[in-house]
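Supplementary Note 3. Input sequence used for the single-chain structure prediction.
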Amino acid sequence: MLRKVVHSGRGRQVVVMDSLSQATEADRNHVIVAASNGGAASGTAARRLSLGCVVLNDAGIGKDGAGVAGITALDEVGIPAVAVSHMSAEISNGMDTWDNGVVSFVNETAQNAGFRIGERVSDAVLRFLETSPEPTP
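The predicted structure, written as discrete structure tokens, is reproduced below.
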């Protein structure tokens, strides 16, 4: 299974993985980019680990309510979350999401943090890391 740190800075890492279910306690406060969808299980995992930001690959965004529900639920705990649609790039794994992904959905917290629909995932996440406060231990 894929698990790769692609960037470190300001007290956070960007960790790319195939599924958010791979996230562990060591990922607390970090940014996770995953090829998994944004359903309720992903939202629960992100809340449990107090992730700093979540990028999920979700073909269901705009087609059904599961992905939107999982991502928007993170607003309740202040976690920025965005989705990459399969339609926005050729996506087959977490690295494709990081390298080629284009933001297709943002929750309100992510919008307030500066994420915008249509921008490249890697550019948006790196800007977020530069502008967001460092996590407190």
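The chain is about 30% helix and 20% strand. The chain has a mean pLDDT of 85.
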